[in-house]
Specification:
CATH architecture of the largest domain: 3-Layer(aba) Sandwich
Distance between the termini: 44 Å
Low-confidence stretches: none
Mean pLDDT: 95
Number of helices: 15
Order of helices and strands: HEEHHHEHEHEHEHEHEEHHHHEEHEEEH
Number of strands: 14
Shape: globular
Helix content: 40-55%
Strand content: 15-25%
Largest sheet: 7 strands, mixed
């Protein structure tokens, strides 16, 4: 492709209000940050429990660096699987009351590894249309037939399962949908999988640490478990660090260890991060007030936000999407907030459907009630100026 075509494509993205850019974070992650030399109140990160800069995690990472150095130096199956990684896998499995767990470097790599290791050309993957891109890419990489059912449409899913000719079937779903903040109906999904002899992969990237009284995620939220469940969660959101893992029965974990290419053929993530993540798990158990505070902040935002110009989508999670509509209007609203010292990211197509550009408000236990009230009142004032 000639470079002139690339430049034309970029100009077209800019004309459509779709050109993306990066901001430079100059402080630790938190509710109050320094970006591009300016101080802001930020509602941008997935640091839902406010642990990314927690002193206990920083101290643990430093201790891990002293003991293990910085890099793992090899893949898990060569000599990169340290005692810190092994202890973390054991503690994650115990925390979730599963047989075993397996660490991956990212959630994207975990999903690619799981689906491509378990499914093949003659199999069927059924995916919610609003799933994370990694689940769609994973299905395509596996070469299985992919059916995308309408968002949370159990009737559509059941019809697809009932008419499937493939012997091996896998339903894949986000637990908490990252752009809408709604929660998958896990018990009903599991019942369909049991009825039609399918397995269920749940990506709990945005639920782990947040949902459930002890932060065990969507499994605890609904009180469900099944040998048909494959549970994946990330460790860079509520856990505040980096990485991902899969948990389930011992045969599943052994199968992934033997066959997940994104596990086998990559360097293990730094062991000092595994030490920090063990500190995260301790805080999950010891500081339940963080989840309670999050619930209060969600209620406060709904109470104080009084604008009729933009719709706050129904969500009981820290993901609070404010639907604006047009790309340029959404960018303008985000810019207006930024000029007033508040950062809220704008989400546009293709991440969300055309005509559904939005501000994605991410709440954190690091926010105060005053922070949330300031955001709501600023949005109310901007609406009144329209």
């Amino acid at each position: 492709m000639p470079f002139i075509d690339l430049e034309e494509n970029l100009r077209e993205l800019e004309a459509q209000g779709l050109l993306r850019s990066r901001r430079i974070l100059e402080s630790a992650q938190g509710a109050h940050v320094t970006v591009d030399g300016q101080a802001y109140l930020a509602f941008c990160s997935n640091d839902y429990l406010g642990l990314a800069a927690h002193p206990a995690l920083v101290d643990a990472a430093c201790q891990g660096a002293v003991q293990y150095g910085v890099g793992a130096g090899a893949s898990h199956l060569i000599i990169g699987h340290t005692a810190a990684h092994h202890q973390l896998e054991t503690e994650l499995a115990q925390f979730l009351q599963q047989d075993a767990a397996l660490l991956f470097s990212t959630g994207y790599m975990a999903n690619l590894g799981i689906v491509s290791a378990l499914m093949g050309r003659n199999d069927l993957v059924l995916a919610d249309k609003l799933n994370h891109a990694s689940l769609n890419d994973a299905a395509q990489l596996s070469r299985a037939r992919l059916v995308r059912y309408n968002h949370l449409d159990l009737g559509h899913l059941e019809r697809s399962l009932a008419t499937a000719s493939e012997r091996k079937k896998l339903v894949v779903t986000d637990a908490v949908f990252s752009m809408d903040g709604d929660i998958a109906p896990l018990p009903a999904l599991l019942a369909l999988c049991e009825r039609y002899d399918a397995y269920l992969l749940v990506d709990d990237a945005h639920g782990f640490g947040v949902l459930g009284e002890q932060g065990r995620g969507i499994l605890e939220h609904f009180g469900v478990d099944s040998p048909r469940l494959i549970y994946m969660a990330t460790l860079g959101k509520a856990a505040g660090v980096f990485g991902a893992f899969v948990a389930g029965n011992a045969s599943l974990i052994q199968t992934l260890m033997q066959g997940a290419r994104t596990y086998i053929y990559t360097t293990a993530f730094p062991p000092l991060l595994a030490v920090a993540l063990r500190a995260s798990l301790r805080l999950f158990r010891e500081e339940a007030w963080r989840r309670e505070h999050l619930r209060e902040l969600i209620a406060d935002l709904k109470h104080y936000l009084r604008t009729e110009c933009w719709q706050l989508l129904p969500s009981e999670t820290p993901i609070q999407p404010l639907l604006v509509g047009g790309n340029k209007e959404a960018v303008a609203l985000s810019d207006a907030l930024r000029s007033r010292g508040i950062l809220v990211p704008v989400i546009r197509p293709p991440t969300v459907p055309k005509g559904q550009a939005r501000l994605r408000i991410s709440l954190s236990a690091a926010h105060s009630k005053d922070d949330v009230r300031k955001l709501a009142e600023t949005l109310n004032a901007l609406a009144a100026e329209r």
